[in-house]
Amino acid sequence: MDAILENPSRRLFLKTGAAAGGGLLLSFSLPGLVRAQGEATANPFSAFVRIAPDGVVTIAAKRPEIGQGIKTSMPMLIAEELDVDWSAVRIEQAPIDAKVFGEQSAGGSTSTPDDWEPMRQVGAVGRALLIQAAAQRWNVPAAGLATEPGFVVDKAGKRRASYGELAQAAAGLTPPDPKTLTLKDPKAYRIIGKAQPQSDTPAIVTGKPLYGIDVRVPGMLYATFLKAPVFAAKVAKVDLAPAKAVKGVRHVFVVDGGTELEGLLGGVVVVADTWWQARKGRNALEVTWADHPTSGQSSAGFIAKAAELHGQPPHRSLKTVGDVDAALKGAAKVVKADYSYPFNAHATLEPQNCTASFKDGKVEIWAPAQNPEDGRELVAKTLGIKPDDITIHFTRSGGGFGRRLMNDFMVEAAWISKTIGAPVKLLWTREDDMQHDFYRPAGYHRLTAGLDAQGGLVAWRNHFVTFGEGTKFARAANIGGTQFPYGAVDNYAQDVSVMPLGVPTGWLRAPGNNAYGFVYQGFIDEVAYAAGADPVEFRRKLLGAPRLIGEPGKGDSFHTGRMRAVLDKAAEASGWGRKTDKGVGLGVACHYSHRGYVAVVMEVAVADGKASVRKAWAAVDVGKQIVNPNGAEQQVQGSVIDGIGGALAQAITIENGAVAQSNFGDFPMLRLANAPQVEVHFVLSDNPPTGLGEPALPPSPAALVNAVFAATGKRIRTLPIGDQLA
Questions:
Q1: What average pLDDT does range 478-482 have in this prediction?
Q2: pLDDT of 329-369, one tens digit each?
Q3: Strands 457-469 and 491-499
Q4: d(Cα 366, Cα 409) in Å, to the nearest integer?
Q5: How many CB atoms lie within 10 A of CB 142?
Q6: Does this model's pTM top 0.85?
Q7: Residue 469's CB: how many other CB atoms inside 10 A?
Q8: How far apart are CA 291 and CA 471, in angstroms?
Q9: β-strand pairing of 57-61 with 267-272
Q10: Strands 57-61 and 49-51
Q11: Alpha-carbon distance 438 to 508, whole Å?
C-alpha cells in the first residue's frame, strides 16, 4: 500500500495499483498534491503501505524518528485498522517528498493529533479493498465477509483467503471514500493500546548504522567548519598553510558567509580523508575574527538590563482583565517575587552532522533533520538552485528536542560539497554543538499576586522581560497572554518588555513552557503558602469547577477539569500529605502545554547543599487513547528527567557575545545514577489523542523546586539550582 496523508481535516483521495512483485499498493494524495496515476503507482518507494503476496505488510513511517517512538506508533494505527498481525509488519522510513506525503516534520508533539485519524483511514481502506476482492472471488456480498488478522473470512466460516492471495486483485479495485468507512471500536483493538517495542531497538543495541553520523557514501571526504565564537562574526585574518600541511587534508578555505544566524555563516572549512585529519588541520589554524556589534553582550548585562526594565513601566500589555492595580491595593496580602532562568542548550547526544553530494547542479543530502522541507528551501536559496534539484534522505536522529528544526548544518554540508566538487560528511565537534546552538532564550519575570482575607487569589500580574525589538520577539522568546491562572482570577495582567539580542535562539523541548511551567507553578506555590493553604488544595480551589477557559479548538484553551483530574491522580499516587523525614520534601506542579495536561509530584532530599530526587510521580491526560504504552511511558519519563537535569545544573552563559560553556564538563547532563524512578499514570479523557514528546517537561522543574522548599524552607527562583543550597 502507498498512502499520502496530511491533516485529519483534509479529505483523502485514493488510488490503487500493483506493487513490485505483485501485491497491493495504495497511494493517498491530497487536494493540490495529486500526482499522475502512472507516477504514483510506478514507484514502490512512494508507497506508504505495501502488502506482498506472502502476506508481509510493509508500512512506511513518514515522519522523522528523533527518539519519540513515532516510527512505531503511527504504523500501529494503520496495522490496527488493516487488521493484520503485528508480527507480519515490517516498518521502513518513508522518503522525503512533500508532494506525496505532505507534512513530514517532527516538532510540537503534533504527529499523533495530526495523523490519528488519517493513518487509521489508510488501514480501513486497505481492509475494505481486500474484502471487496474476496467478495468478487467468491461471488458473494461483501457485507457477509469479515477479517481476521491477515485473512478475509466469510461469516459463515466456510471460506478464508489470505491478504497475500487477495492483494493483486485488490490492487485493481476502486477504493471507497475513507469517510464512508466505520473505524474500529476501541474495545476491539488488538494493536493500538498494547505495548510494542520500538522498531529500531535491535539495530540500536547491536550498533547497526541508523544515524546521520553513520552515513557513508562512495568517494566521501570529511569536513569540519570553524566558526567565530561571536555569532555571525567573519574571518578577519587567517594563515591556511598550517592546516594544509597536515597529512590527509585536501582542502582548506574561508567561507565569507552571511548574517542570517540559521543560514551559512562565516568561518574556515577543513576537508580531509578522515575526520580526525580534518580536526587536526582545524586545530592548526590561528584565526583572527572581525569585530562584531554583539560582542559586548553578556548574561550579566542581560540580568542588569532586566532589572532596569522591571523598574520601569512595561513596554506593552499582552492581556489585561479587570483592574489589577485596584485589586492589589485592596488585597489582604500581596505576594511578590522575581523568577528567572538562563539560556539553555539542546545538547543532543549526536552532534549536528550532514552528508551531502553536489553534482551537475543537483545535491543529494543525508541528514538527521526534524524539518527537512525548510532545509530544502534554505539549501536552494543559499546554493542558488531549484528546490526540486535537492534530494533529502531521512536518517534517525540521536536526539532532536527542537535543535534539528533548524537546518544550518544541512546548508553547510551542501555548500562545502559544491565548493570542493565531492561528497562530504560534515561533523560538528561537541564544542561546535554547545557553542553554536539555537538556545532556549533566558527570561526574567516579576510577579505580583493579591489574596483576599479568605486566602483566595484576587489579582495576578506578570511583567516579563524577554528579547526582541519593538513588538517583535526573538525566536522562541514570546509568551502568550493567557497563561494560567488567566480565566481563574478576576484581575489579571500579562505585560512584557524586550531587549535586543545577538544570540541565536530556537525551540527547546516544550518551547516557552519549559520555562513558564517553572515560573508560574513556582509562584503559585508561594501564593499557596502565603494563603496558609496546602499546595494541592490551593490549586484545586484555583481550578474551580470543570470548565473550558478560552475558545474551543484553540491552542491556548484550557480545561480545568482535565487538569484537576491529573492533579488528583498525582497526589493520590504519591501519597500527598504524608509525613517525610527531615530534609525531605514533596513538591507538586501541574501545567498544560502541547494539548497535554500533566501533574508531577517529586520527593526530594536535600543534604550537604545538594538536592536529589528520590522519586517522581507523573499523571498525564493526552486524550482517550494511548497508542503505544511502551513508548508513551518512556516519553513521560524522559521529559521528567530532562526537566530535572536542566533545573539542577544546566545553564548557557554569554560572555563577550559568545558562549562560555563548551562540553558536558561545564554543561552537565543528569547521570543515570542520579535519575529517579518516574512512576507514570495515564488519565484517559474523552478527547482525541495528542502528543507526548513535550507536555511532561514543563511541570517538572517547578515540582523539584517546590519540593526543595518543603524540605528546607528555601525558595529557588532562579535556575539552575546549582550551589544555591550550599
A1: 95
A2: 999 999 999 999 999 999 999 999 999 999 999 999 999 99
A3: parallel
A4: 11
A5: 13
A6: yes
A7: 11
A8: 28
A9: unpaired
A10: antiparallel
A11: 8
